[in-house]
Amino acid sequence: MARPVTQDPHAAALRALVLAHPPLMRWLRAARDHAPAGGCIGAGAVRSLVWNHLHGYPAGSHAPADVDYVYFDSSDLNATQEAGIARRLRAAAPDAPWEVVNQARVHLWHRNSLGGAPPPALSLAAGIARWPETATCVGVALMPDEQLRIIAPHGLADLFGLVLRPSPAADIQAYAQRLASKRFAEIWPRLTIASPAPN
Fold this sequence. Notes:
This is Nucleotidyltransferase family protein. By secondary structure, the protein is of the alpha/beta class. Helices cover about 35% and strands about 15% of the residues.
């Protein structure tokens, strides 16, 4: 089992980067004030922030195509809330390209390369743990007291170590497709990229 993020040696560095990034802080406040409690902003918005910093790029370089807000509500498996949450977030922070997903329902539409569906995630952290790369399996949320909560089921070592590898639950075919389409190595040339294992 992964150790708590509070014990991760990179947690303080991540908090400092997030707190010093005005757009992300604005989006985090919008999420805190206009979206379900317990959710977070994760994936590319966090990964890009860290990798841009580690490459010495100016703030705002290589912004992600969307800002992923994720939450967990097993009582709403029909996506009835997602559109409303997205509308509220767009109204509160229209500069963010919001993408809203209830992690409790991903198993209903996600299929792997063999056409199979994963079992339902039992928590927000469990849903995040299934994202394609370990360095992307990170979410942050701003609490009412302005403290930053970090969700990182696989830790932060790969994110700060510039290592791109598939998460344990990743669909290897999808991971390989992402390597080809996302231009990770071109954008962040100091990355160490783990090739997908052969089937």
